[in-house]
Amino acid sequence: MRRPAFIVGGVALVTVFAGIAVAASASAGTTTYEAEASVNTFTGGAHAVDCRRCSGGSRVTGIGGLGSLTVTGVVAEQAGNTRLAVTYTGAETRTAQVSVNGGIGAAIRFPASRGAGRPATIRVTVTLRAGDNTIGFANPAGTAPDIDKLVLTTDGTPPTAVPTVTPTASLPPTTPPTTPPTTEPTTEPTTPPTGDAAMEAQVVELVNVERAKAGCAAVTADDRLQAAARGHSADMAARGYFSHTTPEGVEFATRITAAGYTWRAAGENIAKGYRTPEAVMTGWMNSAGHKANILNCTFRDLGVGVAADAGGTLLWTQDFGTPR
N or C: which end of the chain has fewer CB within 10 A? Predict the structure, then answer.
C-alpha cells in the first residue's frame, strides 16, 4: 500500500490538509484569542468554567459529541500559512477535529497535560484567508480537550511547504446483509459531524452519472445515511483505523440502523487517501466489488461522508440503502 509522502524542511516536520498542520517547531505568538470570549460560538453543552492556571481564569469544556467551540474573529493580515499555539487542558490524551473557516476538520491529537486544570500547549500551522477567520474544535466520536486560548503568530520562520498525498487502495466492500441487525452500536454517535457538503454532494452526483450509464435509477441523498457515513469517516480519522468494522466490532449495518435508517438492503464502500471526489470515484469504479455497490440497481438512497486525519489524509465512506 502506498502511503502519503511528507516533506521535511529545516527543523520542522509539518503535515497539512484542510487548513490544519501539526508542527514540531516552536514559535512565539503575537495575538491572543481567549476560548471563553463571548464573541465565540458554543454548541451542545460546551461552556466556560473557572480555571485558576488558565489565561483569563477560564477554559472551555464540554467539547465533543454534540459540543463544539468556534473561535471567531481570528484576523490574518494576508492569506497563507500562519503559526497558531493552542493552549488546552486534559488529564488524558484526547483528539479534536480542528477546522478552519468551516472546512473539513483534521483530527489533531492533544497529549495529556499535567491535569484537568493545568494547561499545556501544542503548535499547529493554519492556512488562513486575509481578514476574519474562524477556528472550530469538535469531536463527534469522543471527548475533546478543554481549550484555554489560541495565540496567533505573525513572526518567525515561515512554515515548510505543503506536502502532497498519494492515493492508497481502499478495502473491499462489505456484502449487503440480508436481515437488519438487532443490536445497537456502542461507539460512534448518530449526530452527524461536520464533513464537506460540497465534496460529498459531488460524490453523489458522480455515482448517479455512473448509474445512469448502467441503466440504474438515481440514488437520493439521505440525511440518515450521511450521518452514519460522516460519523464513520470521522471515527476512522480520529482513532487511526481503516475498516468497515470499528475496533469494538461495530459493523456498518448496525451503524446505519442506529442513525435511524430502516432498511431491507444496504452496502458500504470506504476509501483512504484520495484528495478529490473524482479521484475516489475512479478508485472505486476500478474495483469490481466497490463498483458492484455503486451500480447495484436495487439501492435507492446514499449517504457520503469525508473526514481528514491529523496527517491530512482523507477518509471516505459511502453508505447505500434501500428502505424497508
Answer: N
